[in-house]
Amino acid sequence: MKKLYSLLFVLIFTCIQINIFAAEPPEGISLTKSSNGYLVQFTLPAYNFVTVKGGNEDFYRIIVDEYGITPEDGFPELPLVSFNLFIADDESQTSFEILNTKSKEIELDKHIFPKQIPWEKNKP
């Protein structure tokens, strides 16, 4: 019975490790390995503006599926994406280069909703 539990533990641990290392990058991020490094391409995925009420003012909340939000309380709640890029031990020289950027400025008729401080469940 002890051997069965040990084998089961090893199998579950292996499955978890495979899942972690084989995870796909978030939507909008393309990762390609080449002979001289990695190419990470970012394309802004579809996003939605949702109007929320805060006090006597209307705000926009920007929603991007699968993305988190910036963590700083009181600052605009903006979409945030991150992912892990594992680099092998023999790749000793790490550097990055931004090949190109494209930006577009838009004017909004409402402010972006500020990130809220989490409320404790035991307080009213």
Question: In words, what does this structure look like?
Answer:
This protein has 124 residues and is α+β, with helices and mostly antiparallel strands. Helices cover 16% and strands 26% of the residues. It has one helix at 2-21; strands spanning 29-34, 37-42, 48-54, 57-63, 68-69, 79-80, 111-112. A three-stranded mixed beta sheet has the order 3-4-7, with no helix packed on it. Strands 1-2 form a two-stranded antiparallel ribbon.
Keywords:
single chain, alpha+beta, 26% strand, three-stranded mixed β-sheet, 124 residues, two-stranded antiparallel ribbon, 7 strands, 1 helix
Low-confidence stretches: none
CA(first)-CA(last) distance: 50 Å
**Share of helical residues:** 10-25%
As a percent range, the share of strand residues is 25-35%
How would you spell out the order of helices and strands? HEEEEEEE
What Rg is obtained from the alpha carbons, in whole angstroms? 21 Å
The beta-strand count equals 7
Number of helices: 1
Please outline the major beta sheet: 3 strands, mixed
Output the strand order for the largest sheet: 3-4-7
| Inertia-based shape | extended
Structural class: alpha+beta
Average pLDDT: 80
